[in-house]
Amino acid sequence: MPTHAAGWAHADGALRGPSWLRPPTDPNALVPTLWSRTARKVDGVLEVGGVSVSELVAEHGTPAYVLDEADFRARARAFREAFADYDVFYAGKAFLCTSVARWVAEEGLSLDVCTGGELAVAQRAGFDMARVEFHGNNKSVAELRRAVEAGVGRVVVDSFDEVARLTRVVAETGTAVGVMVRVTPGVEAHTHEYIATAHEDQKFGFSITAGDALEAVRRVLAAPGLELQGLHCHIGSQIFDTSGFEVAARRVLALHATVAAELGVEMPAMDLGGGFGIAYTTQDDPADPAQLATEMTGIVEQECRVLGVAVPHLSIEPGRAIVGPSTCTVYEVGTVKEVALDGGARRTYVSVDGGMSDNIRTALYDADYSCTLASRRSDAAPVLGRVVGKHCEAGDVVVKDEFVPADLAPGDLLAVPGTGAYCRSMSSNYNHLLRPPVVAVRDGASRVVVRRETEDDLLATDVGDQS
Ligand SMILES: *Cc1c(COP(=O)(O)O)cnc(C)c1O
Questions:
Q1: Nearest to 148 by CA among 122, 128, 186, 174
Q2: Orn/DAP/Arg decarboxylase 2 C-terminal domain location, by residue (predicted)?
Q3: Catalytic residue at 392?
Q4: What is the mean pLDDT of each run of 10 residues along the chain (467 residues)?
Q5: Residues with beta carbon inside 6 Å of ligand 1?
Q6: What percent of the chain is helix, strand and coil (3-state, nearest 5)?
Q7: Which domains are seen in the chain, by residue range?
Q8: 29, 68, 179, 331: which is deepest, by most CB within 10 A?
């Protein structure tokens, strides 16, 4: 052990991070569960897809999102194979570009989009529109028209306004469209627990308990051109077990059976949404797709038996669980600052050349991440560090707590795993930073699939005084 003989935790005034955080047993190794499948360290240097990040950075600069294509495809395939009888919709909002849309298609998945912009990416990628599902709580008439004209497989309606709007759109365009009705099953899923409630005080879906969901089904059935496929629910995100899905599925299936009994309509399909968790740190222990599939199918089949209805054709919408672990963000360390805290402990602030503009999740959701020194070996003792960005904002934190080598210095590369979902897709130009590129790696080669923004991109919309 290269660590100080007394150990980090025994040093006077040593800073103890969160209770789950342990110093690394080998700081020059990766914790495999946090990294994409091809990631490894070769003499301290991180290698992904057979490409050393030092070489990748020499070519593409920092910060950069490094996307492991084999990992993405393997996770997509794992969901498709485990949920073989389902339709698996990749939730494009987690991360979408034309390359990823093509990989999704090639791996046999369908695609879920929730704005005209995401639909545009799918169209640009040549995605089969019949396998696209259109979500969103406030789709505009223009977005609905575009989706219907493009021939999307189904629109998930989310309000009475939208049912009326979509009815007008299909009347105008003269085309029918598949429809699912999004319902709120009264389950709030949190990372490690779920809360079952009668009502959900949130913007999505139709309430089952208030009767809105049944009324929405009635209106869709009565609307010419709207072809009802079934009910849809999505209970949350970064969920680790199926207990929340179980409560939700029971409530949604009860409504499904009510529709059959009261309206005489056996809806052919049902969508159970996404939300499957991934490991951001060693505290997370996600289930694999095969286990999820077995449990979820068992729950639905059992409940259908009890209700005496046929099992509808099921679908799911994983986003994070497919793209999240596929990507790491590589930053360059700019400054390292030791800060004295109350009680004499010191925290090492490591500033990198990105931050909340390329990863807002820590600031927005209090999310946990980890990181590793990616450009060299170090045998220095681990110290508790906090990785922060370069924005003018004290809350600009990327990794709240992680052990980093005490000799971490400007110019070192630092890599943060698990940044594939909701990082690039939620990125911003705060402080007029340029969004990093997405560099795909595979079989020893790297290629840019989304290029780095330039100052010209940044200034392109600034039209100035027009007088
Ligand atoms: C966000 C979302 C998903 C994907 O969630 P993940 O946590 O990324 O799996 C799926 N369906 C709907 C309706 C969503 O809003």
A1: 174
A2: 325-420
A3: yes
A4: 39 72 91 98 97 98 98 98 98 98 98 98 98 98 98 98 98 97 88 70 92 98 98 92 92 98 97 96 95 97 97 98 98 96 90 98 96 97 96 97 97 98 98 98 98 97 88
A5: 91, 93-94, 135, 234, 237, 273-276, 317-321, 421
A6: 30, 25, 40
A7: 8-67+325-459 (2.40.37.10), 135-322 (3.20.20.10)
A8: 331
